[in-house]
Amino acid sequence: MKIRSLTLALSLGSLALVVSACSSDFGSAASAANPPAGDRLLVATTVSPITSIASSIGGNKVDVEGIVPEGTNSHTYEPAPQVAALLSKADIVFINGLKLEDPTAELAQANMKSGANLIEIGTTVLPEGEYIYDFSFPKSEGKPNPHLWTDPIYAAKYATVIRDTFIKRDPKNADYYSENFVRFDKKATELANALRKDQATVPVGNLKLLTYHDAYAYFAKNFGWTVIGAVQPKNFSDPTAAEVAALIEQVKSQKVPTIFGSEVFPSKVLEEIGRATGAKYEASLRDDDLPGSPGDSDHSWLGLMKYDYITMIQGLGGTTKNLEAVNTSSGVKDSAKYPQ
């Protein structure tokens, strides 16, 4: 586990997905009265999926504040000077790790108060032997693909780390954090099950992804999809003409029906590939920009991944009745601050 801390020895416990029965979305712990602001943990987070998961577990017992503005390229994000003020006050700083937010990690190390915890969640849950290096993240550069949260299995593991951290720092509210974790874990499992059912409706051989951003490598490995490429290469610039030509040939030869762009970063290259191959260009996929606006019912990790899975499966010729039936409410009010 990768933790930079003066006080915390974090124990993961079980990382397995647990399907637990729950009588109501609003049980006694989730509806507990808010403690005074000074009694709540101040939690800083980086990308919005982590912010959302932390808020789902922490509920009204913690104050969660995001750092990376939604719609920003988290790989190239440089924290503004005022972020140092948040980091200097935070009790816990959650980052993804796996070399995604190095500038933020360095700023945190330079400014965190004594006793605060800097926790790299992705680095914690992913053994080094399972790192994925690929066309966007070559091993020679030492930065593995960091996008674990697009896989519900890993999202539940993120929630496990967050739960255990909160319990270590705030043991009097252990039952509250544990109950919220069960709610989230149940929803992540429901989403994964719906995904498996709906992806079975995709024509044989069509579970192939050509995306703008290389954000689905771990998801593809665990759910049996194939990532054939990403338009945004390792240096986050447009690909060369030769690379585009190779992608065009690959899309043609593999008969990929739809290629997926980014809602945040429109891609003329993908449009060109679509025209050259006859593949549909779907420009609305997301990897860390939550749907809607803060406070909306679908502005959450659950809402994000439900939207992406539906978009991908429908684009590849499948149906999504099971995913559409998933209620994305975790039963915990999201009061986190999401920079825009």
From TrEMBL:
<keyword id="KW-0813">Transport</keyword>
<dbReference type="GO" id="GO:0046872">
    <property type="term" value="F:metal ion binding"/>
</dbReference>
<dbReference type="InterPro" id="IPR006127">
    <property type="entry name" value="ZnuA-like"/>
</dbReference>
<keyword id="KW-0732">Signal</keyword>
<keyword id="KW-0479">Metal-binding</keyword>
<dbReference type="GO" id="GO:0030001">
    <property type="term" value="P:metal ion transport"/>
</dbReference>
<dbReference type="GO" id="GO:0007155">
    <property type="term" value="P:cell adhesion"/>
</dbReference>
<dbReference type="GO" id="GO:0030313">
    <property type="term" value="C:cell envelope"/>
</dbReference>
<dbReference type="InterPro" id="IPR006128">
    <property type="entry name" value="Lipoprotein_PsaA-like"/>
</dbReference>
<dbReference type="Pfam" id="PF01297">
    <property type="entry name" value="ZnuA"/>
</dbReference>
<dbReference type="InterPro" id="IPR050492">
    <property type="entry name" value="Bact_metal-bind_prot9"/>
</dbReference>
<dbReference type="InterPro" id="IPR006129">
    <property type="entry name" value="AdhesinB"/>
</dbReference>
<protein>
    <submittedName>
        <fullName>Unannotated protein</fullName>
    </submittedName>
</protein>
